[in-house]
Design goal:
The chain is mainly α and 103 residues long. The protein has helices at residues 6-20, 25-94.
Length: 103
């Protein structure tokens, strides 16, 4: 994001020394470091939570797709069973028998 070199840090440090003064500079630097660390931890926590939510959503989508595929496979198997049963009833009737279905 930002690329800060040594020269930029020196300029910021000199300006801070002039504006804040040498007495308050260590306390201000500690406070700035504290808030910078806290903001980084907050951003990291938000990133981790978003990653978990994305993974959970991906798992939900996979589960739904697998459930749909199982349902389709069951339906296809049922259709094959029905076709087999119909063929079993039609073949004996076409063989020249009495024309009544075999039970």
């Amino acid at each position: 994001m930002f690329e800060v070199g040594l020269s930029e840090l020196l300029v910021v440090g000199l300006v801070a020394l002039v504006v804040i003064g040498p007495e308050k500079l260590p306390a201000v630097a500690r406070l700035a470091g504290f808030w910078l660390g806290k903001s980084r931890r907050t951003v990291a926590a938000v990133k981790a939570e978003m990653q978990l939510e994305l993974q959970a959503e991906e798992l939900r989508q996979r589960f739904i797709a697998a459930e749909l595929q199982r349902t389709l496979d069951d339906g296809e198997a049922a259709i094959i069973d029905i076709n087999d049963a119909i063929e079993a009833l039609v073949v004996p009737a076409a063989g020249g028998g009495t024309g009544t279905p075999v039970s």
